[in-house]
Amino acid sequence: MIKVALDAMGGDFAPAEAVKGAIAAVSKKDQLQVLLVGQQEVIEKELEKFSYPKEQILVVHASEVIETEEPPVNAIRKKKDSSIVVGMNLVKKKEADAFVSAGSSGAILVGGQVIVGRIKGVERPPLAPLIPTQKGVSLLIDCGANVDARPSHLVQFAKMGSIYMEHVIGMKYPRVAIVNIGAEEEKGNALVKETFPLLKACKDINFIGSIEAREIPHGQADVIVSEAFVGNVILKLYEGVGGTLIGMVKQGMMTSLRSKIGALLVKPALKETLKAFDASQYGGAPLLGLNGLVVKTHGNSKAGEICNSILQCQTFKEQGINDKIRESLQSESVKTGDAQPEQ
Amino acid sequence: MIKVALDAMGGDFAPAEAVKGAIAAVSKKDQLQVLLVGQQEVIEKELEKFSYPKEQILVVHASEVIETEEPPVNAIRKKKDSSIVVGMNLVKKKEADAFVSAGSSGAILVGGQVIVGRIKGVERPPLAPLIPTQKGVSLLIDCGANVDARPSHLVQFAKMGSIYMEHVIGMKYPRVAIVNIGAEEEKGNALVKETFPLLKACKDINFIGSIEAREIPHGQADVIVSEAFVGNVILKLYEGVGGTLIGMVKQGMMTSLRSKIGALLVKPALKETLKAFDASQYGGAPLLGLNGLVVKTHGNSKAGEICNSILQCQTFKEQGINDKIRESLQSESVKTGDAQPEQ
Predict the structure, then answer these.
(1) Choosing a second label site near A20 at 20 to 30 A (CA), which of A5, A92, A221, B95?
(2) pLDDT reported for residue B332
């Protein structure tokens, strides 16, 4: 039985969509239990609306809620009875295998490191969302809050990202590339230039070299390695340019009677095509390298994305991803002779 | 009379589109002379196809061509009789006010610094393309090849960008923002955190704080300050996501008979809307802070963009942008007491 703690209070549509997502997930899988974490009365009132296998959904009470605008470090320290802190403690105490939340990104990143803690040898846990491409999805690693990374961090990101893409998403020999401003090896800033030969020397990944940002939407690599500042810019610009263009297309179609009629005719086909440019079917963004798993879903995620994120946790556990990460880093520390204390 | 040297050999459609662009520009402005730089015979053969005011278009022979794949530093050093080196030397010798090229970005950036040279006090000349937004255009500064910038560089970028947007594009009190991964002042990497208070203290710009990448396409700032690695990623991802989405929309419209009929009906309206999301009407990307002006146009630019780039050089000169940059940096060096030798 795999147990996933779900933040029932996080995100724009909590608790309704969280509850619906939990019910959808358990209706698909038998060997799955969802622990809905949050204000018991509110959650139970929502649960009453549905019929579901009672033994697969439990409520764990947490009286407080961390708001998205709260400073994360403070929020994690002070709101001990918040859904995020309670949920993460379930993972820490091995009472849950994973924690899923659509709540405050900052609090989730801080809590993941401080409460759940890192796997021995992991220098930094990266946040790794899937982004849509022409060909499917790519993993963008790291988009977290740890900026000013070192080359050794990026090498670990490449390894963890490869393991995730191969065993959770099911992609054989995922192509790993580093974000750069040109295709040639001598291009880049100091960080990229230092990291490039390390990735090239790394035997357990399929490193294909640099990737220019222009090529990312074309799906030219499966694991896209970057430090978090650049990763964050890529992730957010993706959403911004995509949203703006789709908005302009819709607006353009409404400018005349002729175009309005045309819009009615193209709408179904267009909807189908643009659905391909949406990564939410794969679930949320995992925070990798933790003793357990934390998944951040979009703040505006609906039941579908939440359900997919829960199922993603199940695959993560079944595939023994953390054991694979431990092995991969151990082989490295044996080689280099250094090891880091578990946090 | 303003003189603009134009690389007749650079870009995918040289020399035909360069020649057409030059003719279009001089037909719009009397006080303008275009010096077509490149292989004389080839250019003259192209010119023969048109009638135009002979005294406004001259040919300056240059026997060599720098290819886009050549290592820039080498190319500039060795190909002394290339259209880029000859064109830039015209600016250096004050025989032209500006140089426009659709050729190798690398060679243009290197040549700008090495041949044309920086204005006294300018630490780094930034490449500053205009990018389309929902509301018009924003200046993205810097997208050049100088990575690993310092805070003082970014402050100069902000000043030069403001002057350009106000006096060349005609935007009053342009809003200046720094690219960041959150809106709060304490967010960011080391560079952004150090630069933020300097921009805040800068009296001659209208600094509005941080901008997240998601907000860039919404036009939330007019001058978007960033070091070149991040700027480059933004510029190229903009093109990549935009191109991919438009491609998918087109493809989606062709999937059924129904959608094909719809496509015919929406096409004119859509074309009109998407034209608004195109910055080429403003010309190419200026390399700012030089003793003169160098403008890089897209490698695939047609006559329209080349013509606009030439006209942009005229506005640049008429508005005395370089004098304004000198004044702005002088007031700074008076304050801080430091000055740099002219290169």
Answers:
(1) A92
(2) 63
Q: Answer yes or no: are the C-beta atoms of A87 and A101 closer than 8 Å.
A: yes
Give B58's strand partners.
B35
Residues of B whose CB is below 8 A from A218: 240, 244
CA distance B320 to B313: 11
Read off the DSSP letter of residue B329: H
Q: Is B73 on the interface with A (CB under 8 A)?
A: no
Cα radius of gyration rounded to whole Å, chain B: 21
CB contact under 8 A, A273 and B249: yes
CA distance B8 to B3: 15
Tokens 């600016």, residue located:
B91
Residue A82 in contact with residue A64, Cβ under 8 Å? Answer: yes
Q: Directed axis angle between helix A257-275 and helix A228-253, to 10°?
A: 150
Amino acid B251: pLDDT: 85
Q: What is the DSSP letter of B255?
A: S
**CA of residue B59 relative to chain centroid, distance:** 24
Over residues B126-162, the pLDDT tens digits come to: 999 999 998 889 999 999 878 889 999 999 999 999 9
Q: Is A262 on the interface with B (CB under 8 A)?
A: yes
Q: Annotate chain A with three-state secondary structure.
A: CEEEEEECCCCCCCCHHHHHHHHHHHHHCCCEEEEEEECHHHHHHHHCCCCCCHHHEEEEECCECCCCCCCHHHHHHHCCCEHHHHHHHHHHCCCCCEEEECCCHHHHHHHHHHHHCECCCCCCCCECCEEEECCEEEEEECCCCCCCCCHHHHHHHHHHHHHHHHHCCCCCCCEEEEEECCCCCCCCCHHHHHHHHHHHCCCCCEEEEEEEHHHHHHCCCCEEECCHHHHHHHHHHHHHHHHHHHHHHHHHHCCCHHHHHHHHHHHHHHHHHHHCCCCHHHCCEEECCECCEEEECCCCCCHHHHHHHHHHHHHHHHCCHHHHHHHHHHHHHHHHCCCCCCC
Chain centroid, CA B315 distance in Å: 14
Q: Which residue has the tokens 């992730």?
A: A235
Q: Which of B255, B273, B274 to mutate to test the interface with A (most CBs of A within 10 A)?
A: B273
Give bridge partners of residue B130 from the DSSP assignment: B139
Nearest to B217 by CA among B241, B193, B200: B241
Beta strands in chain B (DSSP E): 2-7, 32-38, 57-61, 98-101, 130-132, 137-141, 175-180, 206-212, 223-225, 285-287, 293-296
- DSSP β-bridge partners for residue B6: B36, B100
Give the span between the Cα atoms of B10 and B79, in whole angstroms: 14
| Single-letter amino acid, residue B53 | P
Nearest to A248 among B213, B264, B273 (CB): B273
- In this predicted model, what pLDDT tens digit does every residue of A21-76 receive, in sequence order? 999 999 999 999 999 999 999 999 999 999 999 999 999 999 999 998 899 999 99
Residue type, B94: K
Chain A residues within an 8 Å CB radius of B72: none
Preceding peptide of A15 cis, ω within 30°: yes
Is the Cα dihedral A253, A258, A264, A269 positive or negative?
negative
Cβ-Cβ contacts under 8 Å for A11 (sequence gap 6 or more)? A17, A18, A101, A102, A103, A297, A298, A299, A300, A301
